[in-house]
Amino acid sequence: SGGGGWAARLAAELGAVEAASRDLLSDADSEVSDPSTILRRLDAWARDERPSYEQAFVDLCLPTLLAPLVRLALLCWRPLAAGDLAQQPWHRQLTSAAASLAGELAAADGAAGGEIAAGGRGEERAASDRAMLARRGALPARLACDLALPLLKHAVTHSWDVFSLRQTRQLVAAVGSAAGEAKALAAASALGWRLSSAGATQQEPEAAEAAEAAAG
């Protein structure tokens, strides 16, 4: 009975923590508490004022900006009860936002097709779009690897009942989804490196022309 009482107290404490986490930002504006709303505002900035967006290095700041909200959401994640990270609300929000951004940029690129075909800044914008989409697509994976993997490791080490078939199935799902996130992050990093290299190669002729003009 002592063990049962301890388990009941632990369950009550976990329930209290989850309830408090859900109420923590209940009175906060969605523009500072909802990842989807935050990303929509930033997407509008990127779409309308791309130079200032890039100068502010917004994409590089997104993991840090969204990490507190994801940490808060992960307080309610139980890897041994619902292991698949891709089914977590915060993950679905970020994935959906990336898909929406891809659609918006594709529509904008289609409208500017003549400019891109003619060269000039249209090509630069298309390259910028590809790089931004690569970073945005990797955002859920980066946050999952940074914030969820330690929780998964803790669950395996301290909470997993090796004789529980239900927990083991959820753990398999959790490990599988975490491995998928790690692969997605590695692929996005490789793609980002290739895009950066391509951008540098594209800029070399322009730099050479500028140097030649200055020398002349």
Automatic annotation (TrEMBL):
Localization, UniProt = Nucleus
Arranged from A to Z, the UniProt key words for this protein are: Nucleus
In alphabetical order, the GO MF annotations are:
DNA binding
Q: One cellular component GO annotation, for this chain's record?
A: nucleus
Source organism superkingdom: Eukaryota
* GO terms classed as biological process: mRNA splicing, via spliceosome
Q: What's the chief localization of this chain?
A: nucleus
Q: Does the keyword Nucleus belong to this entry? A: yes
State the protein's name. GCF C-terminal domain-containing protein
Task: Note whether Nucleus occurs among the keywords.
Answer: yes
